[in-house]
Structures are given as structure tokens and as C-alpha cells.
């Protein structure tokens, strides 16, 4: 694993964009502006309402998904992968060939995106900490849904935002992120905090404080699967997106997810590499400040862009950022696809190969040890570049649609269009800045 391709993002990544950055950025900004103009002319009433939209899923699909056997299978699968990773982490060698690094940085972090888009809130279904908490509750005769205390509403999803920041810091900034000890400590701390929180506040803690459950559940809002009065329904992802619950800290979660991805591109840019190499300031300090700056910057730009819109007498101005935060979800997905596509496909395959020999002793437990990584995507850079740019543009266009639909619901008629202009400017800034960083990396 000496190839430099595997030394970024904790263990690796690769990007080649052989198309004109100026053309891509200009086209993306034009697409965003045209989309807003079309919406302003043709979309004058709300179209997406999670409370009324969607058609019931097929009866047998509902029966399977709601069956105890299906839920048990998912929990067992989640615990099996967790136990296998723990086995490699505790007994395996402290080398990059240990599959725990790929399981931690690739399968867990990036793999949750496509799984949640296709299947819904996957982490909630397979979470090993939920399963362990359930087992403890069964043994003690308590209810896993209720803890000793009631979860404070004012905390919202702030704990999840902090947990997500701890992960991206570990992945992108911490200089020993590819050593086994720190990864073991991070996971052990995560499990301990989650189990303690579950005991104190019940399953509500996982819904609002587990960084990976909050992350997966937000991405799942762009899946076609939803619930209405407990019934499984199939509906437009935009209607699903309308069902994002507004809670304190939601903008912070979005800022961490979006800002960390932007920083990941920035830290690989020639400008930043030259700067940290020539600076007398500690590299670790510079990287920490840059990551924090990107996260805070994204949050501020979005908060100001939404709070600057026209509001009605019953809508506090600073309540708007959390109410519009759902519109950032498709943008996050777009940048995740653009930035991590080859990382997931190629390093994900490599992890599966390495997982067959978790202890590095020449075993082939999964029968994948003699497989080889397929680099087809990297061998087609033009297709890859177009896919990445399209993902970014499509993410922003869907975000503009979601924001427009919410604005029509919230803003008074005299401000429904002009009131969106500050948010549109923020979106244009995100589009141009994100694509620039993607090309600069």
C-alpha cells in the first residue's frame, strides 16, 4: 500500500478531472440560476408535503420490512461486521493492510451514503450500539426506548454534530490517523458514549446524538422510502426531504458534513500544500484551523443567506437556517459523490480483499484474498470528471428546488421570490467554490 493514492482521506483517494474548470463552474452557476428562474415563473404553490404524499408500498414489502425476523437479520449482520472489525482491530497488525482502516474510513463513512440513498436509514437498522443497548435492556427488564432521563430538547442534534466533527478531524487532520491505536481508541470512545447515552436517555439518544445515525437518516431523506402514520410508503425523494425534523444543531450537522468535504479538497490543492510547506507555523495547527474555518464558514454563509430572506410576523428570522437546512442534504450528497466516488469503489474493493486476512497471517477467510482491485473508473477520467461535475450540479439544483418549495410555505407572498435571493447567492457561492476546490485538489 505504498502507492501515494492511498495516503489521503485517512487511507486514500484519487481524483482526475481532465475538463476545463472555468467551463464547468460557469455551466454549473448558469444551471443554478436558470433553475431558480424557471421555479420562480412556474412554481407558485407548495408541491411537497411529507404528511400527505406517497403511495403505500407493496403489502409483502411492508410485511417483510416490519417483520421481527427481518429486523433481527439486520441486527445480526451489523453486529457480525462490527465484531469482525473489532477482531481485526484488536488482534491484527498495525499496518495499512489491516482491513479495519478501510472498514472505518471507507465502508462506514462513505459507504453509508449509497446504502442510505437506496435503502433508507440503514445505520438505525444495523447499529451495533443499538443492538447492544437492546440486549442490556432485555437482560435488565427495562425498555430500550426509555432511559433514566428525558433527552433535553434544547440539545437537538448538537451532540451528533460534535461527533461528526470528531470523526472528520480524525480522518482529515489527525497526523496519526493511519495508526491502529488511535482508531481503536476512537471507536471504543464512540461505543462507550453511545451505550452510556442509551442507558440515560433511551433510543431517543441514538436518533439525535449518534453521529452516524443522524448522518445516515439525513441522507436517507433522499431515498424513495418513507413512513406516513407508521405505514411504509414510496414517494418522491423531495417529498421525503420535506420530512426532515427541524431541531437545534441541524445547521451545524450540515456545516460539518459539507465543510469537511470542502476542506478535504482544499488541503490537497497546490496552494495549501505550498503554504504549509513554506510556513513556520505548525502544520497540525494550520490544518486544524483550516478545517474549523471551512466548517464555521459554511455554517455562517448558509445561516446569513437564509436569515436574510424576507420573513413574516410569525417567523423569527434566526429560525430560518434550521428550517431551510434540509435543502443542503442533496448538496452534501452531490459533493460526497464527486469527492469520494473513486475512493469508495477502489479502496472499498481493496478493503474487501484485505478483510479476508484480518490478522495479516495469510488467511483467506472470506475467499476474496486473491481478488484484484478494478480501476475501471480511474482508467476513464473523462467519464469520471463528467460524473463528478454532474453530481455537484444536480445536488445544487435539487437543493434549490427544496429551498424554493419551503420558501413558498414559510415566506409571505411579497417576499416569496425576492426573499430567496440571498439564499440563491449562497448556493451560487457554494457551487462555484466547491467546483473550484474539486478541480484544485
Explain what you see.
With 441 residues, the protein is mostly helical. It has one domain (4-440). The protein is 64% helix and 2% strand. The chain has 19 helices and three strands. The protein has helices at 21-42, 59-66, 68-91, 99-108, 112-119, 122-126, 128-140, 158-172, 180-201, 203-209, 211-219, 237-241, 250-266, 270-278, 283-307, 320-324, 329-355, 381-410, 421-440, and strands spanning 55-56, 225-228, 231-234. It has a three-stranded antiparallel sheet with strand order 1-3-2, with no helix packed on it. Helix 1 runs parallel beside helix 18 (381-410) and helix 7 packs across helix 9 (180-201). The chain crosses the membrane at residues 23-43, 72-92, 104-123, 155-173, 185-206, 284-304, 324-345, 421-439.
Q: Could you list some keywords that capture this structure?
A:
441 residues; mainly alpha; three-stranded antiparallel β-sheet; 19 helices; globular
Going across the biggest sheet, name each strand in turn: 1-3-2
Distance between the terminal alpha carbons, to the nearest Å? 21 Å
**Total number of domains:** 1
Question: How would you sum up the major sheet?
Answer: 3 strands, antiparallel
Going by helix content, strand content and strand pairing, the class is: mainly alpha
Order of helices and strands: HEHHHHHHHHHHEEHHHHHHHH
Low-confidence stretches: 1-8, 10-16
Query: Which percent range describes the beta-strand content?
Result: under 5%
Helical stretch tally: 19
Instruction: Give the overall shape.
Output: globular
Q: Count of DSSP E strands?
A: 3
Mean pLDDT: 89
Radius of gyration: 22 Å
Helical fraction equals: 55-70%
Amino acid at each position: 500500500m505504498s502507492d501515494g493514492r492511498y495516503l489521503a482521506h485517512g487511507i486514500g483517494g484519487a481524483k482526475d478531472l481532465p475538463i476545463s474548470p472555468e467551463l464547468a463552474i460557469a455551466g454549473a452557476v448558469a444551471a443554478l440560476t436558470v433553475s431558480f428562474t424557471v421555479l420562480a415563473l412556474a412554481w407558485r404553490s407548495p408541491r411537497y408535503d411529507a404528511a400527505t404524499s406517497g403511495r403505500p408500498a407493496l403489502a409483502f414489502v411492508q410485511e417483510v420490512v416490519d417483520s421481527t425476523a427481518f429486523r433481527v437479520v439486520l441486527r445480526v449482520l451489523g453486529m457480525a461486521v462490527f465484531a469482525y472489525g473489532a477482531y481485526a482491530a484488536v488482534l491484527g497488525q498495525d499496518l495499512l493492510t489491516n482491513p479495519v482502516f478501510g472498514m472505518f474510513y471507507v465502508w462506514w463513512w462513505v459507504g453509508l451514503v449509497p446504502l442510505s440513498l437506496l435503502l433508507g436509514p440503514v445505520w438505525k437498522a444495523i447499529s451495533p450500539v443499538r443492538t447492544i443497548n437492546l440486549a442490556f435492556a432485555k437482560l435488565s427488564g427495562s425498555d430500550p426506548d426509555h432511559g433514566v432521563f428525558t433527552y433535553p430538547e434544547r440539545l437537538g442534534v448538537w451532540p451528533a454534530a460534535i461527533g461528526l466533527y470528531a470523526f472528520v478531524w480524525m480522518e482529515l487532520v489527525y497526523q496519526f490517523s493511519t495508526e491502529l491505536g488511535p482508531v481503536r481508541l476512537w471507536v471504543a470512545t464512540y461505543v462507550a458514549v453511545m451505550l452510556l447515552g442509551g442507558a440515560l436517555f433511551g433510543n431517543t439518544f441514538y436518533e439525535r446524538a449518534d453521529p452516524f445515525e443522524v448522518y445516515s437518516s439525513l441522507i436517507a431523506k433522499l431515498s424513495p422510502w418513507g413512513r406516513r402514520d407508521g405505514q411504509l410508503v414510496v414517494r418522491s425523494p423531495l417529498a421525503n426531504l420535506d420530512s426532515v425534523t427541524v431541531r437545534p444543531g441541524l445547521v451545524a450537522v450540515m456545516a460539518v458534513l459539507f465543510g469537511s468535504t470542502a476542506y478535504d479538497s482544499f488541503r490537497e490543492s497546490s496552494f495549501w500544500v505550498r503554504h504549509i510547506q513554506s510556513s513556520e507555523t505548525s502544520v497540525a495547527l494550520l490544518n486544524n484551523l483550516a478545517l474549523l474555518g471551512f466548517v464555521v464558514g459554511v455554517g455562517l454563509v448558509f445561516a446569513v443567506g437564509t436569515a436574510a430572506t424576507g420573513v413574516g410576523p410569525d417567523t423569527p428570522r434566526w429560525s430560518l437556517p434550521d428550517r431551510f437546512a434540509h435543502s443542503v442534504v442533496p448538496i452534501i450528497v452531490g459533493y460526497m459523490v464527486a469527492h469520494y466516488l473513486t475512493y469508495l469503489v477502489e479502496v472499498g474493493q481493496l478493503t474487501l480483499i484485505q478483510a479476508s486476512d484480518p490478522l495479516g497471517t495469510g488467511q483467506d477467510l472470506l475467499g476474496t484474498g486473491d481478488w484484484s482491485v478494478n480501476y475501471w473508473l480511474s482508467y476513464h477520467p473523462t467519464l469520471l470528471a463528467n460524473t463528478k461535475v454532474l453530481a455537484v450540479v444536480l445536488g445544487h439544483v435539487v437543493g434549490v428546488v427544496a429551498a424554493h418549495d419551503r420558501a413558498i410555505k414559510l415566506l409571505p407572498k411579497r417576499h416569496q421570490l425576492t426573499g430567496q435571493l440571498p439564499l440563491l447567492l449562497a448556493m451560487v457561492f457554494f457551487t462555484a467554490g466547491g467546483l473550484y476546490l474539486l478541480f484544485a485538489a
